[in-house]
Specification:
Number of helices: 5
Largest sheet: none
Distance between the termini: 26 Å
Structural class: mainly alpha
Shape: globular
Oligomer: single chain
Order of helices and strands: HHHHH
């Protein structure tokens, strides 16, 4: 995993029809971006935390891409479970 693979997943979520599999991959990628930018989820997996700690802060355009991808994924998700992630990414993008 690297920034380019995360970007590719998030771009796909913005450009392609959102399937359940793509949505899950995009959510995982966006969680990594949010964590690396200083807004991790409460229960970040150890492997993800370790990756984040060794790869630094993402570029602002990647944070914006993650935010746009989650807005798109959220339109296909009726449970509202993405609101926290969207708000965290929005806070980062606005900073």
């Amino acid at each position: 995993m690297n920034w380019d693979t995360l970007r590719g997943t998030l771009e796909a979520a913005c450009e392609q029809p959102v399937t359940a599999e793509l949505a899950e991959r995009a959510i995982e990628a966006a969680e990594i971006v949010a964590a690396a930018a200083g807004e991790p989820q409460d229960e970040l997996p150890y492997e993800t935390r370790e990756w984040v700690e060794t790869h630094g802060v993402p570029e602002p355009d990647l944070v914006e891409l993650a935010y746009r991808a989650m807005k798109r994924v959220a339109t296909s998700d009726d449970s509202g479970r993405l609101n926290d992630l969207r708000f965290r990414l929005g806070d980062i993008a606005a900073a």
